[in-house]
Amino acid sequence: MAPCTQMGSGRLSRGLLLLWALLGTGLCHVGAEAEGFGQDARTSPPVALFNWTAQLVEETYTNITQKCWEFFVDLMRNVTVSELCEWKVISRPYSLLQACLEGWADHLHYGYPNALAEQYIFQSHHRYFHNCTLEHQALFDPPEDVLLAMIIAPICLIPFLVTLVIWRSKNGKAQP
To answer: Distance between CA 107 and CA 140 in Å, rounded?
Structure first.
């Protein structure tokens, strides 16, 4: 996936384009770990790209995901505490985080979803959205009188309809 996406400011596009250019030439690879997140056994191992080893691809993706996370945190600094649960406000930063994680995994042929991206998504929920609840009221069973009416009405109708069918079929005349 190309890193040139429509953004409000050109800062991310230019930064990702520069990072993409450096990755394409093999000049950008740093050995730092992103808060202890690593490839999980549940996901497929990374595929070598441009004669890169799987370890180099994983290391590169780890560094890029850290930058995705830092950009997300920077965007979330502009969101007030009262706005944290409003989807209209948080959808852009959240979608950009997801697109960054997925786009770079796709670009590096790393496989998505993967354990590292999953950890960043979980971390975002834990850090920013843990107090958000659904605004809809939980559904409960109807009152007993309504429930009994809904159960008994079909039961009473069945014998009536069976009697009606039998009575109409005894007539023997064909209906047009």
So the answer is: 47
Q: Which of 61, 65, 69 is nearest to 110 (CA)?
A: 61
Q: Phi and psi of 175, rounded to 5°?
A: -95, 135
- Given the structure tokens 């040139």, which residue do they identify? 4
How many Cβ atoms are within 10 Å of 123's Cβ, its own excluded? 15
Residues 107/52, Cβ–Cβ less than 8 Å: no
DSSP string, 134-154: -SSPPP-PPPHHHHHHHHHHH
If we measure between CA atoms, which residue out of 110, 105, 74 comes closest to residue 92? 74
Q: Splitting the chain (176 residues) into consecutive groups of 10 residues, what average pLDDT does each group show?
A: 42 47 43 42 50 86 95 94 90 95 92 93 92 71 91 93 89 62
* Alpha carbon distances (Å) from 97 to 49, 58, 75: 23, 18, 10
